[in-house]
Structure formats: C-alpha cells, structure tokens
Amino acid sequence: MDVDVVGRVLSTLPEDDDHPYRTGPWRPQTTEWRADDLTVVGEIPADLDGVYLRNTENPVHPALERYHPFDGDGMVHVIGFRDGKAFYRNRFVRTDGFLLEAEAGKPLWAGIAERPATSPREDGWGARGRMKDASSTDVIVHAGVALTSFYQCGDLYRLDPLTLETLGKAGWGGDFPYACGVSAHTKVDPRTGELLFFNYGTDEPYMHYGVVGADDRLSHYVDIPLPGPRLPHDMAFTENYAILNDCPMFWEPELMARGRYAARFHPELPTRLGVIPRKGTKVQWFEADPTYVLHWVNAYEDGDEIVLDGFFQDDPEPKDTGDGGYYQRMFRFLALDRMQTRLHRWRLNLVTGQCREERLTDSITEFGVLNSAFGGLDYRYAYAATGVEGWFLFDGLVRHDLRTGAEDRFALPPGVYGSEPAMAPRNGSSAEDDGYIVTLTTDMNDDRSECLIFDAARIADGPIARIALPERVSSGTHATWATGDSIPGWRAADSPVQALRL
Ligand SMILES: [Fe+2]
C-alpha cells in the first residue's frame, strides 16, 4: 500500500469523551489519507469498475449540551476500483459551518437534540433553522460530481468524486432554493440523468418538490402544501411519477411554540403518500396505515398502480424501558430493533385512489439499496443492513428476493460493524443481480477497517475480497456507488490513480 497523510484537523473533543456515538465504532477521524494500490486479501474483480462513496459523521468540536449522532461534520470516504486495483481517499466536507467552527475553535450552532435558541449564532441552516449544515448524511453522484447533503435540509456540497476536494455548493444555474435548502435523499434517475429532490420546513407550504436536469439546472420546483411542519426523510420515483410522504410523526406543535423541537408519533393519523407527475403540480394523496418510513427502497408502475417499497416501522417512537445508559436510551429511536423496521410494500391505485399494503418479511432490516439501473423500474432484489440490538450500528447484510421472499444473509463477526451497502453492477452486465456488494467495516477487535466485496448473488458465501484501509473509519449513515463511466476523466487515464493526477 502506497499511503500518505495529506491533512489533519484539530479536534477540541474531550480526551475522556464518554459519548457512545463519539467513541468506539463512532470514534471520529481527524486524519485525511491518500492510499493507492491497496493491500488485498482475495482478488478484486477486474470488472468492478467505479467508486464506492460513503459519508460519515465526524464531529470536530463538542456539542453545546447534547451531541446527536447526526450532528457530526461530514467526512466522505471513496474507494475506487479499476483493472483489479483499488485506491482510497477520505476528506472532510469543507462546509461553511465546518470552516467557521474551525476558525472559532468551538461549536457555533445547536445540534438536532438541542434548542435552536442556544446557538451562539443567529444564522444557520436546517428545516427548523439555526443549525449547522454538516452535510454528513447522504452522498450521491449527479452530472459527474458527488453531492453531499444534510439530514434536515441544507446546501448540497459538490465534491470531486475521485479526490473528494470540496468544489463548492450546487447552484443549479442560480436557482438553488437556498432559503429552504434541500433534504437528504435526492434521487438520480440513471435513464434521464435527472435529479429529483424535496425540502421541508416550518413555514407554509411546508414542503417543495423539484427536478434538476442532466445539465445541472433547475427545471421544475413546486409547492407541496402540507397540514403543518413535517419530517419527511426520503422520497421515491417511478418512470413518470415522484412519491412524497407525510408520515404522522412530526415536531410537537406545543413544544415548537416554546422553541423545542421534539418529534412525536400520532397513531391516530394516517400515513399520507403523495404521487405527483415528475414535472407536474398536482399531488394525489393516498392514506395508509400509520407509521414512519425513514427509507424507501424503490418504486415502479404496474398498470394503474404505483408499487412502493420501503421500511415500515412498527414502533416509530419506542418507549424508554430504562435499559442501557443515558445516551443509549436517548437515541433508542435509531436502533432498528427498537423501531421494528421491516420491508413493506404499498400499492397505490391511481384510478380508485385506494392503497393496499403488505409486509414483505418478518426480518428486521433497513438501509435498503438496489442495482440503481433498476431505480424506478420493476425489480427483484433489495440489499439491506441488519442492526445491532439497541444501537445504531450495522452487523450484517441481507439480500431480499422480493419475488420469492428468499433471504441471503451474511453476519459480520461480533465487534465488526458494516456501512450501508451499495450494489455495483458488473461492468457490462444487464442482469439485475449480476454485480457486487461493497461495504466498509469498522472492526473494534483489530482496530482497523476493511472494504468488503461480495458477489451480489452469493452474499452468504462471504466476501470475495477484503481490502485494508489505512485507518479505522467511523460508523455513519449513507453510501452510494457510481460507475466509472459516470465520472469525468475516469477513462482518460491509464489508471484511476493517474486520473487523480490529471
Ligand atoms: Fe437517510
């Protein structure tokens, strides 16, 4: 392995930190690495061609009062594969908030679990305002550039998908909705090159939906009126429609009036699913059983119906059972077993206006992905993560066969945690399951991280290659795969490493 330290960031976190989401498998990194020609156990397939990008929460400064695991500064990791070789980079996302806090040497904004009024600064980002846009939640690639985003809306930061250099913010031809920002979970349709997005906030109409063309310009932006402030996290799309949601879990209005932002579940209200033509203005709303859906997997059209798959939560607001320490109890609603997240299918009939729904499995999984070439189309396979009891940590992978119900599983060893998987289609493949599953591990037993590559059709067989990273990486939230063909300069060089130097 050819490795260099290329940057270090000064952390002001306490040395005796006891926050479980800033220590152990969530220990933030402060070092930025360049590593080429990585050491491999097994063999990197020659037809694995592209980059796995993963965003993580890496707090540099302590919270004002209470750190929430989603407050941390964004750090993106890239591991790229070409011609059977791999390279790795990691870089902080140089957001405005990150740079201002670096200058101040301390936190300047209140986090998700804190009151906005305690923010030292009057300005800020986020659906509720006066929050730092950490850009640490999600990452996708659109128009050849990686875009990072923040959980509760903010700017989209543009990163070079190979070097991870922060290039600035998405501007969309001067029409970026800076006032509301953009939520995590923008969606890219690989057939049209369009990016679909939504945002939400505390002012009417409470939500907007928009489309950005393959030319990186805003082409559509409409109001989505809701009954009040809501907390949607993800959206879905088909060939002709976008699907938005109004789940009955939202900030308690009485607390909001007193400057506190705490989400409560309302089982007496339905889940509302909104279908809008991708370039349309009118939403058709459907009512479904009350739940909260953090993530959808995919949607497609089937005659008069939209088929929508996602993770139904049986218990969106888990009770405090008194088990575990202060922080484990506080963040119990991030543990998959506490939320009871199960793959679920909604069928929305555009003619009758009726919604039928069914549970697809009894297994608890979340963070589901698919072969993105099948995004918006009828598909068969979803690849998802399993969770550690009581914690926001992933301990294995499952391939759900949605046609047969079969599940192909791989469990990581105790003390080893995974990241959100990504499906990497084999170069030149057309079959949905013909490719690889890529994930990063955080190994607390050996204090290291690896990138694992699985044959997507044979996950239970275990990884076909394990690639050592220079340092143990923190747990985090979302990841993505981008094919080499979608990255400018990828083919212009003799190797990805050379592409980095062009
Ligand atoms: Fe998410």
Question: What can you tell me about this protein's structure?
Answer:
The chain has 502 residues and is mainly beta. It has 5 helices and 34 strands. The protein is globular and about 55 Å long. Helix content is 6%, strand content 39%. It has one domain (2-501): Methylamine Dehydrogenase, Chain H (7 Propeller). Strands 1-2-6-5-4-34 form a 6-stranded antiparallel beta sheet, with no helix packed on it. Strands 3, 29, 30, 31, 32 and 33 form a 6-stranded antiparallel beta sheet that branches. A 4-stranded antiparallel beta sheet has the order 7-8-9-10, with no helix packed on it. The site of fe (ii) ion has 6 residues, from strand 34.
CATH class type? Mainly Beta
Oligomer: single chain
Number of E strands: 34
Quote the CATH topology: Methylamine Dehydrogenase, Chain H
The CATH architecture assignment turns out to be 7 Propeller
The amount of helix comes to under 10%
In CATH, what is the homologous superfamily?
YVTN repeat-like/Quinoprotein amine dehydrogenase
Shape: globular
Measured distance between first and last alpha carbons = 21 Å
Largest sheet: 6 strands, antiparallel
How many domains? The number is 1
Spans with pLDDT under 50 lasting ≥5 residues? none
Give the overall average pLDDT: 96
GO molecular function: carotenoid dioxygenase activity; metal ion binding
Family: Belongs to the carotenoid oxygenase family.
GO biological process, one term: carotene catabolic process
Binding site for Fe cation: 185, 233, 295, 478
